[in-house]
TrEMBL record:
EC number: 2.6.1.2
Pfam family, one: Aminotran_1_2
GO CC, alphabetical: cytoplasm
Residue stretches making up the Aminotransferase class I/classII large domain: 128-527
Classification via InterPro entries: ALAT1/2-like (IPR045088), Aminotransferase_I/II_large (IPR004839), PyrdxlP-dep_Trfase (IPR015424), PyrdxlP-dep_Trfase_major (IPR015421), PyrdxlP-dep_Trfase_small (IPR015422)
Any one GO BP annotation for this protein: L-alanine catabolic process
Protein name: alanine transaminase
Function, in words: Catalyzes the reversible transamination between alanine and 2-oxoglutarate to form pyruvate and glutamate.
Pathway annotation from the record: Amino-acid degradation; L-alanine degradation via transaminase pathway; pyruvate from L-alanine: step 1/1
Cofactors named for this entry: pyridoxal 5'-phosphate
MF (Gene Ontology): L-alanine:2-oxoglutarate aminotransferase activity; pyridoxal phosphate binding
Sequence similarity: Belongs to the class-I pyridoxal-phosphate-dependent aminotransferase family. Alanine aminotransferase subfamily.
Amino acid sequence: CQGPGGCRGGRKDMALRCAAWLVAGRQPRCPRLPPLAREGTVRRSSAAKASAVKITEKAGREKILTLESMNPQVKAVEYAVRGPIVLKAGEIEKELRKGIKKPFTEVIKANIGDAHAMGQRPITFLRQVVALCTYPNLLDSPNFPEDAKKRARRILQGCGGNSLGSYSASQGINCIREDVASYIERRDGGVPADPDNIYLTTGASDGIATILKILVSGGGRSRTGVMIPIPQYPLYSAAISELDAIQVNYYLDEENCWALDVNELRRSLNEAKAYCNPKVLCIINPGNPTGQVQNRKCIEDVIHFAWEEKLFLLADEVYQDNVYSEGCQFHSFKKILYEMGPEYYNNVELASFHSTSKGYMGECGYRGGYMEVINLHPEIKGQLVKLLSVRLCPPVSGQAAMDIVVNPPIPGEESYSQFIKEKESVLNNLAKKAKLTEDMFNKVPGIHCNPLQGAMYAFPRIFIPSKAIEEAKAHKMAPDMFYCMKLLEETGICVVPGSGFGQREGSYHFRMTILPPVEKLKILLEKVKDFHIQFLEKYA
């Protein structure tokens, strides 16, 4: 039919339908043809049939990209924090919205450290500055304090066209890198920091993945080995898999509050030398998922070990503001390295990472972060900048948010009192919730939780009876995955099984954030307690 509503008048969808009907021996339903004409079309349509067969054959062609043909390194990547249990939680939420009855009314997602999603209020000053940068017309508004306007103007002057919507330099906006360097000097008691060693990143994760990418090389027994703590944050194992590097596990000492023992580092390194070239040592301090805060002596021992064994140090310090236990204090690796003297400070290669996502800010969505990299070979520095240039620049709004983390209001400025009140409120509240979680877990038979010295998670050890382990095997699940799935299905609480972070053989854990409001956290902990007792009774 040649008409505008017909299959040859531009209606490709109608042409395909007519051809398909013809192949099936059915009468086409072209809106431009009367019934008799359609019948004649059926009798005279051998060419249309052949065309439709070709269309059908084309539609059935094998896909170029399949599980068998895809990049095997990507297929090997696992990220437990957003893994199968979170997908199941999403399915349950949909069922609840449809009115399907459950033993609970909501899913509590305690699987991830997303502070604002859990109800934490944003820091007013940070949001004011980012708002002013995003919509500069607000700079004329009397509703914003002058100290916020001053920072916004400085950031905008560093942007192309005075706009947050322009690209920045690949290393980040220069004035923000200067502010990061000043922050590090203040934090570390005057230890010098060079803005040229600062790289703004898309959250800390981007910086960690970038440094690992530039470090990995070789093949066979000379392939780069990356030493990571077990338990670890799954970013590390995922990045190592993607880069086809070799994961080298060292175990934290659960019986000693998840302490890091240099003898364990040495055991791990010596065993790994038989099958790879270990040249990277990753440290998470404060720990995720384990919450330990390393003391000064431990950090000195680790630095000496890295110097002695010629290892590149990665210090993940995104929880540096999250320290709760009495007697614990955050020490940056950069500061301790400097204080150990020039033999160490001028030679140990160190990359340190920080982020807007954790601490008291909880600004996960801005994806702001930085890394400081010291003692890089000058030629490697050029290679690093080249690699960063490929992704053009980190989000400029995230860079602005990072600037407020490192350049907050100071005493004497009009926003200082409100800022410090909000900051201390968040951190004091987290400290109370850390103690509450530890105490309540340790009252439950079959659960043991080490002190939550820092960060924002509990990683309790759980006893799983042999009968439950057998049932988990029958379902082709790790025992702690089976436990966590049952917990989700019966209580609506979503936590992450310890097997997603790594743990010693025969031990079982789960990671749970302490971010929910206190009253909701108490309800959550009571539900976990009741579930665990019932679980033990059922599988005893």
